[in-house]
């Protein structure tokens, strides 16, 4: 599915159970909110493009005939019902996957960034847990997005964006599409940006109505693969490796993750809320399951801070590499999740060692940077050592956010 960050969640791979000699002792989940309506800014572009398309004098292709009676009726920003269901199913699925960690005496510790669709996703997740167990974990902490927040990319004012790169790609892939659409809808005079807005209607209307949008039929599979690359570039150059101050925005969460894995206080001087993280009530270290709810841009920053999905060569704004593994649809679809499992594994001598595995949308990550074996297992201390960038508060990058 080539809908980039607007794709509904799907497993990027089949979940692999850890080796029989291993026991999972802790699970850390960070999850994107579920499927939503377009943002208010995106909605303006969509409405303008639809208005132009409907103003055509006539249509020369029957695929466009539905537009004669089409009324745009999508909301803005909020979750759609399907998005709410995604999070609910996710909460239930965690119960099914990790039954050994499910106990009414040890409910998951749940946090959320304060955006309404993120909060709603967190509470829907707890509802899914409730449906599976009869116990509802509380949403214990909501981090305000205008303050220190490790679940939102709001604390690096000097960070650039991806507009230069995405505009370069729009100028490559949309001209022939615009020419084709304008020929089939004379008088519409669609611009390159209009084409992109109309393409987004395919996923947005599909998740809102839960049936394939008729706008999807206006574009070919190859054109949607090109649309996907817009999203890849957007994420790579906004908060990913292509942005000089991208990955530093994920450092705070990584340091919180290290604290949970090691059972030690948070050590961080970046995005963390030190008041909340220093309290055993608002940042406990004695739970088996932790669930945090966030946004796609922040999750990309976290991937990059950890060292996941690093590209040998930076993404080219005008020429996609077909062999790249940086695909927004597999990194941050709606309801995307990164799961970090802590395990104890027998070493054959009756002794157990602590290990870490990481999965992104169920795809086991190779973790070569900490010497993972074929099962994706890194020794816990090797994983901690590998996170030198986060442990050094971004190696000077965080200060550059405010220079």
Automatic annotation (TrEMBL):
A GO MF term: acid phosphatase activity
Domain of life: Eukaryota
Gene3D superfamilies, sorted: Phosphoglycerate mutase-like
Keywords linked to the UniProt accession: Hydrolase
Classification via PROSITE patterns: HIS_ACID_PHOSPHAT_1, HIS_ACID_PHOSPHAT_2
Nucleotidyltransferase found in the keyword field: no
InterPro entries according to UniProt: Acid_Pase_AS, His_Pase_clade-2, His_PPase_superfam
Name assigned to this protein: Histidine phosphatase superfamily
Organism: Crucibulum laeve
């Amino acid at each position: 599915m080539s809908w980039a960050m607007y794709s509904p969640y799907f497993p990027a791979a089949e979940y692999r159970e850890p080796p029989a000699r291993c026991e999972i002792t802790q699970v850390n989940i960070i999850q994107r909110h579920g499927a939503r309506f377009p943002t208010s800014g995106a909605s303006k572009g969509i409405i303008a493009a639809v208005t132009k398309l409907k103003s055509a004098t006539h249509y020369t292709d029957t695929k466009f005939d539905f537009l004669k009676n089409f009324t745009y009726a999508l909301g803005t920003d909020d979750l759609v019902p399907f998005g709410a269901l995604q999070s609910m199913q996710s909460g239930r699925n965690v119960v099914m996957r990790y039954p050994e960690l499910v106990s009414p005496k040890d409910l998951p510790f749940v946090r959320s960034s304060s955006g309404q669709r993120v909060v709603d996703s967190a509470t829907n997740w707890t509802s899914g847990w409730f449906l599976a167990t009869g116990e509802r974990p509380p949403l214990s902490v909501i981090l305000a997005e205008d303050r220190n927040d490790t679940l939102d990319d709001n604390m690096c004012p000097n960070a650039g964006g991806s507009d230069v790169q995405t505009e370069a790609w729009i100028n490559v892939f949309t001209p022939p599409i615009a020419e084709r659409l304008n020929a089939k809808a004379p008088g519409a005079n669609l611009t390159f940006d209009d084409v992109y807005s109309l393409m987004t209607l395919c996923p947005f209307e599909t998740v809102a109505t839960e049936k394939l949008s008729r706008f999807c039929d206006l574009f070919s599979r190859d054109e949607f693969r090109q649309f996907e690359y817009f999203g890849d570039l957007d994420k790579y150059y906004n908060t990913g490796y292509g942005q000089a101050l991208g990955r530093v925005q994920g450092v705070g969460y990584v340091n919180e993750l290290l604290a949970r894995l090691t059972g030690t206080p948070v050590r961080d001087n970046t995005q963390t809320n030190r008041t909340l993280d220093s309290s055993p009530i608002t940042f406990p270290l004695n739970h088996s399951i932790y669930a945090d709810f966030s946004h796609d841009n922040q999750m990309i920053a976290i991937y990059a801070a950890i060292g996941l999905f690093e590209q040998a060569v930076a993404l080219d704004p005008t020429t996609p590499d077909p062999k790249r593994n940086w695909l927004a649809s597999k990194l941050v679809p709606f309801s995307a999740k990164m799961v970090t499992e802590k395990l104890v594994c027998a070493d054959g001598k009756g002794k157990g060692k602590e290990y870490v595995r990481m999965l992104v949308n169920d795809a086991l990550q190779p973790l070569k940077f900490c010497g993972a074996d074929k099962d994706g297992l890194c020794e816990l201390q090797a994983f901690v050592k590998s996170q030198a960038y986060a442990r050094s508060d971004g190696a000077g990058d965080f200060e550059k956010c405010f220079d």
